[in-house]
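Lab notebook, bench 4. Still working through the backlog of constructs that have no structural model yet. Next entry is a single chain of 112 residues. Request: give me the structure tokens for it.
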Amino acid sequence: MKDLKVTKEKVLLTVLKCPEAKEALRTMFPEVFEEDKYFDLDKLKIDSTCLFTDESAINAGFENNLFMFVKVCNEYKGKAFTLNTSYNWELTKDSNDSLTLIPTKNLKQLNK
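Model written out:
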């Protein structure tokens, strides 16, 4: 018997032809569906990288609009945010148990 070759394209074609098989195929070949879990963060950008205007960022107290932006390279390009290391970032839960990201100024900024 000839070896069976399973490709991502063949699995996705099978799902198109038989949507009911998607969950079974996802169990057998989870790597094929890896992209399904990500958001397309590039759609959030107001220009090539930025989520905020310089004016709004400066008004909020940041140096410029690059304090937080959509990742533009590597394996998480368009799938993750980059947080500028000039700031401290704390991920915590608030009193309503909501996950909250808090940026704070670091000592270097406070001494300016």
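Notes after review: DSSP finds four helices and four strands in the chain. The helical segments are 8-17, 22-28, 54-60, 107-110. Flag for follow-up if needed.
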